Amino acid sequence: MAVQSLQRDYKVIENLKLSKVYLPILDKLLEDISQECYNAKRLLAKDKIRVVRWVKTDEYFSDLIVATAGEDQVFTYANIALKTQVEKLLISHHNK
User: Fold this and answer.
1) Regions in the chain scoring below 70 on pLDDT
2) Is the overall model pTM greater than 0.90, yes or no?
3) Is there a contact between 67 and 52 (Cβ–Cβ < 8 Å)?
């Protein structure tokens, strides 16, 4: 979700006058978060766990469908909580 958010923002920032300042910061964030996502997926794959699909059920909630060795699991998340976590992740990466 963080990667998708940054990719959407990237298109907007490209049109700003100060894009030369912000684009390198965005590139670094995208690279770092994409690498973390890749590493997390690799670790989960070792335990035979993979994300099947992310479904926005309505305005307030989303379902995450995860395949495990036994059966598929469905996790429901509040969209506002996800947005808050993504913002915290981006801020923490930016502060590093």
Assistant:
1) none
2) no
3) yes
